[in-house]
Structures are given as C-alpha cells and as structure tokens.
Amino acid sequence: MKVLQAIYDFLWGDLITIPLLNGSSLGLSLLIIILIPLGIFSTIITRFLPVRLFPEMLKVAAHKGGNSNKRSSVSGIEALIVSTATRVGMGNLVGVVAAVSAGGAGAVFWMWITAIIGSSTAFIEATLAQVHKSKDPLYGGFRGGPAYYLHKLFAKNKNKSILAVLFSLSGLLCWCGISQVIGNSVSSAFENAFNVPPLITAIVLCLPGAYIVLKKNVTVKVLDFIVPLMAGFYILLTLFVIINNFSLIPSVFARIFNEAFGLRQAVSGGFGAILMNGVKRGLFSNEAGSGSAPCAAAAADVDHPAKSGLLQSLGVFIDTILICSCTAFVMLLVPENVLSGLSGMDLLQKAMSYHFGNAGVIFIAITLWFFSFSTFLGILFYARSNIAYVFGDSWTSQTIYKAIALINLFIGCLAAYTFVWDLGDVGIGLMTIFNVIALIPMSKEAVFYLKDYETKFIKHEEKAVENVSYEKTHR
C-alpha cells in the first residue's frame, strides 16, 4: 500500500506548487504538467484543429459506414460510440459534481478549455492508432492502440517493446480497477434510490455484462444502441431544465466566467482551486492523452487515418462540452442556498430533486447504471488489443481477463476496496506517461496525414464546388 500510495502521489499529487496572490496557490501534478503542454502543442501543430475543422468532424460523423462490408469490421462512427461509452461515464456525473463542489462554477470554464486543447491530442493519438493498426485474427477487423505505435517506435525488429508491454499492463490494471468502481457506484446509487440490496444489483449488472463481453462481436452492437440513446435522453432532459429556467441562463454564464478567473474568490484566494479542479476533472473525463480511446480508434475501418482522428476529436467535445456541461447546468440552475453544504452525489441528487421532484433521484440512479454499464463494456473492448499484444492471439487469455473483470465488477457491487481503486488511478497515470513518450516524436506523422486528408478531401471538394459554381455562372 505504501508503494502504491507513493506512485499515486507522484502521478496525481502536487509535484509543483506555485504561490499566487492573497495566499492562494496553484498545485500542479505530473499528469497536468504533461498533458496541458501536450494539448497546447497538439493544438498549435494541427493549426487549431478543434475550431478550424469542427464542421468537418460533424460531416465525417454523419457519414455512417466503414470501408469494408465485412460483418466483423467496425465503422468509424461505431469506434466513436465505443470510445464515447467509456468517456461518458462516472466522470460526467461524479467528476463534474466534484469539480463544481471544490472549485465553484468557474471550474466548468476550465473544463471547456481542457476539452478544446485535449481534442487536438485525441486527434493525434487516434490517427497514429489508425496508421499502425494490424489485422485481428480473433475478432476479425482491426486492432491497435498505443502499444502498437510504441512497438513501431521502439521495437525495431524485436518481437516486443518493453514500453509497449508496460503500457498494455498498465491499461489492464486500470480497467480492472475501474470495474470495481463501476460496481460500487451503481450498487450505492440503487440502494439509495430503490433500497435494492447490493447483491441483487451485482447479479443484474454482471449477468448481462457476462453475456455481452463473452460472446464474440456483440459489444459494439450493444453500445451502438445504448450510447446514443442514453446520451440523447440525458441531453434532452437537460434542455428541458434549461428551457424551464431560461431567464436564469445569462446569470449562470456570468457566474461561470466571473468565477473562472477567480474574480469572485479573489479575496479568499480561491483561483488555484477553481483552475485545477476544472483542469483535473476535464482531463479525467475526456481521457485525451491517456491512450484509452486509440484502442477503439484503431478498430475503425475508414478510408483515411485522419477520419478516425477527427471522430475521436469530436468525442472529446461530446463528452466535455455537451455531457459534462449538462450536469453542470443542472446544478448551476438551482439556487445556491438549496445546495449549500452538500457535495458529491448528494449534491447532484438534490439538484435533480429540485428540477424533477422524487423522480430526479430515480433518474440519476438509472442514468448512472447506463453510463457505468456502457463504460464497462467499452473498457473490455479496449482490453482486447492490449491482451493480444502481451499474451498473443489466444482466446484463453482473452476469456481469463474478461472473467477477472467480471469478478471485480461483482465484488465492487458488494464492497469498496480502495486498494483496487488506487490501482485504477495508478494504471491510467502510467498509461498516460507511456503514451506521451510516443506522441511527441510521432506527432509529425499525424500532422502529415492531416495535411494529406485536407488536400484530398476538403480542398478537392472545395475545388469541385467552385467548378460547379463557375459552370452555372457561365452556362
């Protein structure tokens, strides 16, 4: 436990503390020191891709279908849905609540900024995953991710790269830990909302989970149905709240922007808490740079690597700008005195009760079930390529890992073991470090494919439109 705690503190603790005015301080963890500069660097070298090519992201997402007609292939939009399943999870509920509780409304602004620069990082890692993917002999289609482009960078002619193996093992540790967190969060929510015993929740959660993940090529089909439905319903309910409180929207935005720069908390020195809580929760929620989403991006059967990158970049927007903002607005459209003294899920449940009465508590429990269940399915999809890289193409190793994850999910419903949860946090921290080692030197490769895509698809279409306009004018 001491060794694990030391690693956790090194990754997530305040490695550097910068003193600010009025007694405030800005604590920077190793991961923030790594990911924020990486995001800024990625945004610059892609020429502000998140803003410049946002319409193109929507256009690529609207074109459903893969480059192959094989049943086992995964289309670009299906890969986006898988990655969205893991991004849109507890971080969008619990994470946003924690950020606003500790950092105030201003934390939301810094979550938005983190998403904008993070989407550039997501583009680079997803594009690299596409470029260095390989055929999947077990499930069909393709597989890949950071382990595979780390292998390309460091292995040369060797069978394995040490860094690629370490990334894969870190991911497998992380996802097992997350399985327990998922189980505990869902069972707690259902016990509070419906008085359902944890054992019943464990059975209801694990039985369909086992059927889906142990059956070949069912996961993507299930997520293709669940994710758009749950995200769409959550957004619609939030729109209802916003429309019902439309007169308060200007004041909410004013509060977000005023608190974002510590104007309201300047006297008490709260700027550091506002900034760091927004940034930390934004990074945790959208996962850009952690190396998780590229495992899904590599599976996409698209006709150009940059298309997968654009889709995953859009996924960061969906997660943070849309879904996280939904949770934030649900809370910020409640009078401050109503939520005074509350934190965590109690705060969110109280906010939902304010808007929807007792149905709000029930709705949050059901939402958490869907968000968490889809996350569980998504992380086991990610695990496929990492298991294959470390242990080879074997159904035995694939099945054993799925069984371990299901056991962790079941145990998590019954009790909380912080040791396993800390393993999850340490795992994702190590994944991020190993992934970033490859992203910086290989980023020029992603930029090459971005320029190639813009030349072949965007500029070509613009020229075609110009030709049509010219013909019509001179007809």
UniProtKB/TrEMBL annotation:
Q: What cellular component terms from Gene Ontology apply here?
A: plasma membrane
Lipid bilayer topology: Multi-pass membrane protein
One Pfam assignment = Na_Ala_symp
InterPro entries per record? Na/Ala_symport
- Cell membrane: present as a keyword of the record? yes
One example of the protein's molecular function in GO is:
amino acid:sodium symporter activity
* UniProt keywords, alphabetically: Cell membrane, Membrane, Symport, Transmembrane, Transmembrane helix, Transport
The organism's superkingdom is given as Bacteria
Membrane spanning stretches: 28-49, 79-103, 162-182, 194-214, 226-249, 314-334, 354-382, 403-420, 426-450
Q: Which subcellular locations apply to this protein?
A: Cell membrane
Principal location class: membrane
Protein family: Belongs to the alanine or glycine:cation symporter (AGCS) (TC 2.A.25) family.
Name the PANTHER family for this protein: AGSS FAMILY TRANSPORTER, SODIUM-ALANINE (PTHR30330), AMINO-ACID CARRIER PROTEIN ALST (PTHR30330:SF1)
List the protein's name.
Alanine or glycine:cation symporter, AGCS family
Q: Which organism is it from?
A: Acetitomaculum ruminis DSM 5522
